[in-house]
């Protein structure tokens, strides 16, 4: 609830009943007006452009009505009400967090010792609260397991159906992870694989990966996940200049392992938003192309930082390991969490299927579920 409101022609200052004060500009308030002429009542999309707002927009009156803010704009002579809880959610009048390489609110970084988030197949499909919590774990930690699923081929597609859609690639809607003769990708061998993010050569990169176990009687082959954001934090703390190099210059990635396919990208290994927030990791030595965008006098330092990041990622203290049993799967945020595999023997069988999906679908499903039950978001 609002306690008071004062204004100048260009700024409204409000005080909430908590004692918090906040200022809002006239142009910002007019652009974000919630009336049906400005926003579609059905979907909330804006019906005006910024060019439709008069250049001389000004506040003629601002008052508290039933705890909410009522503003009158000139020269339109237009009055709009802004709910106090909406204003509280959208305050921008505060010191912006400018820590270089920080993680976003709601992200928890981790290393070995964390209990892998896990849910049961039947419960996720039957109980909305369990599904919501499973999705929330993926959003917060970047990975989660699912147990007790069917052992039939293509069951992984039902995992993607829980929140969105499969992202089809040149590998098809899904791909097989089992030993092959003359494989097109090292994932299809029994070799161990260093922790990596998948498909860094794509732009945009697939943001989620699902791996689903159908058979696993081979010796070895444990899955390992590593929090790339925690690794980046460690590099930032140990070598700030090296962190800045990996974030400040693009690496290059390439894949051309099958006929008719030549995928290339040019993106930094550590990706930051313009205001310094950590938003992505691309790390895959197998798919790295020659780095040609780093200045000559910085190349050795760049490689030193690259090596250091790799050593952090390879540190056994960073990884959470588990062996998938038939009917079990795990999902990773491919923009953040690296996954690895220990080598396995030719005896027995190991058959996984994998597919990609998009994180925006998962976050959308989660947000809709949290809006339906607001207490779940607290």
From TrEMBL:
It comes from the Bacteria. Keywords: Dioxygenase, Iron, Metal-binding, Oxidoreductase. Residues 9-87 form the Gamma-butyrobetaine hydroxylase-like N-terminal domain. Residues 123-356 form the TauD/TfdA-like domain. Its EC number is 1.14.11.1. InterPro entries: AlphaKG_dependent_hydroxylases (IPR050411), GBBH-like (IPR012775), GBBH-like_N (IPR010376), GBBH-like_N_sf (IPR038492), TauD-like_sf (IPR042098), TauD/TfdA-like (IPR003819). SUPFAM superfamilies: Clavaminate synthase-like (SSF51197). Signal peptide: none annotated. The keyword Ribonucleoprotein does not apply. One of its GO terms (biological process) is carnitine biosynthetic process. Its cofactor is L-ascorbate; Fe(2+). GO terms for molecular function: gamma-butyrobetaine dioxygenase activity; iron ion binding. Belongs to the gamma-BBH/TMLD family. This is Gamma-butyrobetaine dioxygenase. The lineage of its organism: Bacteria, Pseudomonadati, Pseudomonadota, Alphaproteobacteria, Rhodobacterales.
């Amino acid at each position: 609830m609002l306690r008071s409101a004062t204004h100048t022609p260009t700024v409204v200052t409000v005080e909430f009943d908590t004692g918090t004060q906040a200022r809002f500009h006239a142009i910002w308030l007019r652009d974000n007006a919630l009336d049906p002429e400005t926003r579609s009542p059905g979907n909330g999309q804006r019906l005006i452009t910024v060019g439709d707002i008069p250049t001389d927009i000004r506040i003629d009156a601002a008052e508290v009505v039933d705890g909410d803010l009522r503003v009158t704009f000139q020269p339109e002579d237009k009055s709009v009400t802004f709910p106090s809880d909406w204003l509280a959610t959208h305050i921008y009048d505060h010191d912006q967090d400018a820590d270089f390489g920080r993680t976003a609110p709601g992200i928890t970084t981790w290393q070995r010792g964390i209990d892998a988030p896990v849910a049961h197949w039947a419960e996720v499909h039957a109980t909305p609260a369990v599904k919501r919590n499973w999705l929330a774990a993926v959003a917060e930690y970047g990975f989660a397991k699912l147990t007790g699923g069917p052992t039939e081929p293509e069951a992984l597609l039902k995992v993607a159906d829980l929140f969105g859609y499969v992202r089809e690639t040149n590998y098809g809607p899904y791909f097989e992870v089992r030993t092959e003769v003359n494989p097109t990708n090292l994932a299809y061998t029994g070799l161990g694989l260093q922790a990596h993010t998948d498909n860094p050569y794509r732009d945009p990169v697939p943001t989620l990966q699902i791996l689903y176990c159908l058979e696993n009687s081979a010796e070895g082959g444990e899955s390992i996940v590593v929090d790339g954001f925690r690794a980046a934090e460690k590099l930032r703390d140990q070598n700030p200049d090296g962190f800045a190099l990996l974030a400040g210059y693009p690496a290059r990635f390439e894949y051309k392992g099958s006929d008719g396919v030549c995928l290339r990208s040019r993106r930094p290994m550590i990706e930051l938003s313009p205001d310094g927030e950590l938003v992505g990791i691309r790390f895959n030595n197998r798919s790295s192309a020659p780095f040609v965008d780093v200045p000559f006098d910085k190349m050795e330092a760049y490689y030193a930082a690259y090596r250091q990041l790799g050593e952090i990622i390879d540190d056994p203290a960073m990884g959470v390991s588990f062996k998938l049993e038939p009917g079990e799967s795990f999902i990773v945020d491919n923009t953040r969490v690296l996954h690895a595999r220990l080598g396995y023997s030719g005896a027995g069988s190991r058959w996984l299927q994998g597919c990609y999906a998009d994180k925006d679908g998962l976050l959308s499903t989660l947000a809709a579920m949290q809006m339906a039950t607001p207490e779940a978001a607290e």
